[in-house]
Specification:
The protein is mainly α. Helix content is 59%, strand content 0%.
């Protein structure tokens, strides 16, 4: 018989059901707090600045927009 089973048989089985449920609640809350992953750091959209810059290297932004607008008009 394990220590947990011995604890149950010696102490827990004799307390009222309401108190057993309260004990379950206390234990489950403690386990939930211990098993929660650490709070993830919030990220900023600004961290994406410059990402993919190599794709646009050598491309004039205004000419690109002008070409898109011309396509829309056709």
């Amino acid at each position: 018989m394990t220590n947990v089973e011995q604890l149950y048989q010696q102490y827990i089985q004799y307390i009222p059901v309401e108190e057993q449920l309260e004990l379950i609640s206390i234990i489950s809350r403690k386990i939930m707090r211990q098993s929660k992953p650490e709070y993830k750091k919030r990220r900023s959209l600004l961290e994406l600045e410059g990402l993919g810059a190599e794709i646009w290297e050598g491309i004039d932004g205004q000419k690109y927009v002008d070409n898109l607008r011309n396509e829309w008009e056709q």
